[in-house]
Amino acid sequence: EEKSNGRVLDMGRKVMASTITKRGFSSSLTDPTAGMLNPDYEYERLRTNVTTPEDAVNNILYNTPNRMKGPEQRRVICALVNNHPGVLVQVTGVLAARGFNINSLVVATTEVPDLSRMTITLILKKGSNFSQAIKQLEGLVEVWAVLDYTETATLERELLLIKMAHHPPGDDGSDQSADEKMKRHAHRAAIKSLAEIFKADVIDVGSQDLTIQLCGKSSRIDNFVKLMKPFGIIESSRSGSMTIPRSRITFGDEAEEIQMEYDGVDVTMLPPG
Known about the structure:
- By secondary structure, the protein is α+β, with helices and mostly antiparallel strands.
- It is 34% helix and 26% strand.
- A hairpin with a 5-residue loop joins strand 2 and strand 3.
- The termini are far apart.
- About 11% of the residues have low confidence.
């Protein structure tokens, strides 16, 4: 009986896989690396109000993005340094010597005037000796500590200022007909609507353009810029990513257990200083 049930289950899986393949999807159940979609299935990609498991599975498979497997890796580090002239050159020199691409760098003083905090976002190629670069940075006289926040639960924020044109691309604003005015009004309304979805603020308005401010994660700002590009971007400015660890939430015995773990830290594993 168990063998019979196993054969029935295997047969059901094969039927499911073949059905999905016929519907336009490759058999991702058996070959995860195969292409996801047949171009002939374009008209049925996003079916709404589905009533069958087959249609529901098709929608889910299409809307599930593939895992990113690029040759590059994003790293976020924080360096606590003395607020002295030339420190920035020393830190960036170590990273540049190893061929690391600095995607963003934010430096400012902390609550202590003599201490500055650097938040550096790096784009590394696979196989890069990142740990050696961290040790070199920690060995600098002006550097107190270097923290790698890549695998840490953090809060990340970046500020974007973007200036958008009032009129659609290709419209110089000279035509004052009623139809053109309606198009410009619809263009501005679409920009403001998209800004509201991302919880951005319009902070300045001129006769030919408006400026929008958005604060959020770097990936969120990337998406916002991509969606705004068809509306006509005049210019934009980004602050770079700032990162701080998330606060812990502990109650009662949990706090005592964490304290015991902290008491057992090996001091020899801490960075110099």
